[in-house]
Amino acid sequence: MPARTVSSLEDLSLAIPKIFDQAQVSIANHQKNYVALYKLHNDAAKHTEPINKGKTMKYVGEKIFQDVMVDMISRLLPLKKGTTVADRIIKFLGGYVKFANEKVLEDRKKSGAEVHEDTDTPASRFATRLLKFLLKGFLAKDKNVRYRVVQILSEVVQHMPELDEDLYSHIRESLLDRLRDKEAFVRVQAVVGLAQLYGTEDPADLEDDQLPVSEILLNTLAYDSSADVRRAVLLNTQINPVTLPNVLARTRDTDIVVRRLVYTVLENHCIPPDEAASGALGATDPRVLSIAQRELIVRNGLGDREPSVRSATAKLICTWLEVVGLQVEGDEPAKEVISFLRLFDLAENAIAEDALMSVFASRTDIFDNVEFGDQYWADLSPEKSFLARVFVDHCISIKDEARLESALPVVTLLAFRIQAMYNDLMEQMQDDEEQAFLRGEEEDEEERARKEDERMDKEFVIGEMLRLAVNLDYADEIGRRKMFQLVRDMISQEALPEGLLSRCLDVLRKLSPNERDLIRLVVEVVHELRDPEMDEKEASAVDDGDTTTYGETPMTAKTVKAAPKPPTEKTPEEKAQADAIDLRCLSLCIGMLERVNGTFEENSTLEGILGELIIPAVKRKELALREKGLVSLGLCCLIARRMALNSFQLFLSQVQSAPEPLKIRVLQIIFDMLMVHDRDFLGNDGVAGDRIIEFLLQVWGNEDSEKVQALMCVGIAKLMLSGMVTDERVLKSLVFAYVSPDTAGNQELRQCLSYFFPVYCYSSPANQRRMQQIFVPIFEELLQLYKDLDDDREMISPANIVAMFVDWTDPQKAVAARGQVADVLIHLDLATEIIRALFSKDMQKEDKKVLCQVLSKLYIPDAVDDDKIRSLKVLMYNLTSRRPLRDTAASNAFTRFDAAISKKFEKQLEDFNEEQYRQLESLKELFEFLDDIIPESDEEEEVPKKRTTRKRRSQSVASTTTTTTDRESSVAPSVDSRRGGKGKAKKRARLSGETDTDSNATEQPSRSPSAAPAPSRVMPARSARAKAKSKAVAQATSEDEEDDDDESTPEPATRKRGGQRSSKAAKKKEEEARLDAEIDGLLDEDEPDSIMDSDEGEADEVGELLEAE
């Protein structure tokens, strides 16, 4: 018997691998292998040994079984993510743990034993051993091992009925550690594992500094940088009122899949899977959600730029319709849709309209079966009127004439319905006023709110029917006259709600033959409202005495009205009534002017209300009247060029002193006027345009209101994008506003500019060129702003700023438009400007490193003009020889770019002679810039220790690749090699302030072909230093003046000899005396190349320097 036991246990090492071999092939045989493996497990569990005198048992067989299983599992741990066989084995392990635990419970039930989930069984002991083994791999260095152990643990834990408390704590802490793993796929599995602990955790058992797993997962959902991790949290988060706001926030996620997954998760939780028959509501049932949450889902989903997200949202909305329709009696689609519309606030925004349009597009069966019979129009509710209007709009959008014809009511019928509803509204408003007057403040708040809701519902129904009336067919003359007279009477009444005014004007615009008739009608209504007691004969008199019928163009009428009562004689009630009427008349004028496209001169009728109503309103002190008066005047200016020119200064003056609401309206008027009359205000002369732009920028810079800042940003961006404004100051201001820490909280401004800059740059090569030209100065200013930033404020880093400019100026991203040629040399010129900026001593090495590292990201085309590429090469060589980069990373990046340029344009750089290149007039500015660069003192420290014979060196930089080694092994000459003779070179060196050793030393032997000399200075170094330091230079007319000038000029750093001692006072005096003597000798000689040739030449040079000052 013992021999048989040993034999059966030894067979485990052969039998278990066979089961794993089958399980890794296909998941179809997993169930069969569960049974086989469980049988082996049970057989092994029977082999035990008593210990401690039989008090306890040693599970010998189980240990061997567990060892073999752990050995098999260890073999798959190093396998990478995506290995199919490993994923099948892991799934098999989780399934086996579940199968074994269920089998144990089933066997105990059959045997009649007491069933407890915490009973110690072979299955639970195996799972515990497996989990402890896996926890050891959580800190492995190999990312694949960490991934596999977390994956297996997450799979096994979800099938465990119960865990030991210590083991549970260990697993929880280990998973939280892996939630901060640097590898995203490891964090994904950690999320899956923590989700299994979601419902088992009791917040009361947590310590004070411990967060619940649910809160940790929600933080991960909001802040993890990996989209895969956020998707894992979405899929494994329980939807409830606590987690729902965090889930809805992901509708604005940056990842498309995450956004689409949100709507899929919401759809899956609309109907509870187990309680659908009982009538329980799902976690995301639309009736459970608030109106704000429903509108958020529809607005973000249907407004998403990705079609897949919009499709998922439409599917969710259709599910809402089905869920709500289950409670509706009957099979009429209209009733189902009406119940669906009750989920939204129809009067607030267009969210409900977008949702209903989505239903019509997705559910064609509902669109085809909706009917609008006579009974439908008899009792209109807000939902019914809204459905009819949106249905008609949808038919028009898809050009379904048949359905449109069947849905539209008869004009006369609709007119009577509108009239009846309007009369009910007026009666209710009158009754409410009477009740309020009689009761005073005794009316209950709930009753008052109920009446207000009823009034708003009736007003909404009238508005929807008026919107529907715009699309009616007015071929029926009787119906047209009825509708016209009805709407005309409505706008003539003071009690007409403000919200219905624009709807009535839309109908009148539809019914009016032309704009002049519409204007005449509105002017008549204005006069009737302001002078209700005027007699017809006194109201107007036509010159020819004829009556003008409707549809004809009236002659200009002369208004003959009685003198109004002076304001001083009016009572306060009369003044308030007059102001209310003026506000209504101004609203009518605004609505009418918004619908007029002709010029002011073509509609002379407008002159009357301009002088009688609009101008007096502008002069009023009451904010409401002045605001509407300014808006009306602004609309008049849009159709009257001369009036715009005369009134523009008025609007500018209102900007500075007006309160925020009025300032916003005035700025909108100003930008509209600039857009319409751009040639008059922003014309080619540039004087008026510059003043306007300067004023706007000043107002923008001094403004504290975020709304006003955002409005000005939008307006200025529109002017820039349309090409009306091309001033670089404006572009700089926009860039500053985009990256400034002061606008970090102004999301509207940031959103506008994040859209503006790519569109502006990619739409035109000229815009990219303009952006490239402002890069260096604005980068230097932003660097200073970044350095002066307080610790508690945040700003975009210089590296990100440079990356944005490189992206905006990329010529490969410019849109190919007809008539535009891409400027492929923008990045080449940008590289030139960057290298010029690297010459600056004021720029820190960290900032230079940022600029150097971006050079390799620039697009340099294959075909480049010789002058441009050689100019770039000269700049790069002079940078390494005169202003070498001290930072290793910056130097390496610059060297790589230099080598790439030298290799790419090797043929163009062959036989390049700098001496001949200096003769080109077009490159004069480049060499003046280089000649003004003073080499750093470190470059002057290395000198030849012994004289050598002068050798003529080539000035070619064709094959020069500037490296750190070249700088260390060579010395950039400070003497122009074009000057013949040692004497001249020596004098130039002395005037540059060098030591005696430097002056007498001849040039070094020519270097290797890979290291060419730096370009020599045309201007003496003394003058260059004076110019660089911005010191006044006096004209040298005598020896004494020259001596004084030399004494007043700071001594440049001298080169150090190997045996030279530290400078002392006596040594310094001797050196100064020697230099003075040598300078005196130079002044006595007559050298044609010397700057001391004549007073006239020196005066010219000093004049140039003073001009540069």
How would you concisely characterize the structure shown here?
Residues 980-990, 1055-1067 have a biased composition (Basic residues). The chain is an all-alpha fold.
What tags apply to this protein structure?
1109 residues; mainly alpha; two-stranded antiparallel sheet; 53 helices; 1% strand; disordered N terminus; disordered C terminus
Structure notes:
By secondary structure, the chain is mainly α. Among the domains are: 241-370, no CATH class; 386-437 and 451-511. Helices cover 63% and strands 1% of the residues. The chain is built from 53 helices and 4 strands. The strands form 2 sheets. Strands 1-2 form a two-stranded antiparallel ribbon. Strands 3-4 form a two-stranded antiparallel sheet. A hairpin with a 4-residue loop joins strand 1 and strand 2 (56-58). The radius of gyration is 43 Å and the shape is flat. Residues 567-576, 1068-1077 have a biased composition (Basic and acidic residues). This is Nuclear condensin complex subunit 3 C-terminal domain-containing protein. Its main location: nucleus.
Oligomer state of the chains in this structure: single chain
Helix content: 55-70%
The largest beta-sheet arranges its strands as 1-2
Strand content: under 5%
Largest sheet, strands/sense/barrel: 2 strands, antiparallel
Q: Distance N terminus to C terminus?
A: 110 Å
Count of strand segments: 4
| Tally of contiguous helical segments | 53
Poorly predicted residue ranges: 1-7, 535-562, 938-1064, 1085-1099, 1101-1109
Form type: flat
Q: What is the arithmetic mean of pLDDT?
A: 79
Q: What is the CA-atom radius of gyration, in angstroms?
A: 43 Å
The computed structural class is mainly alpha
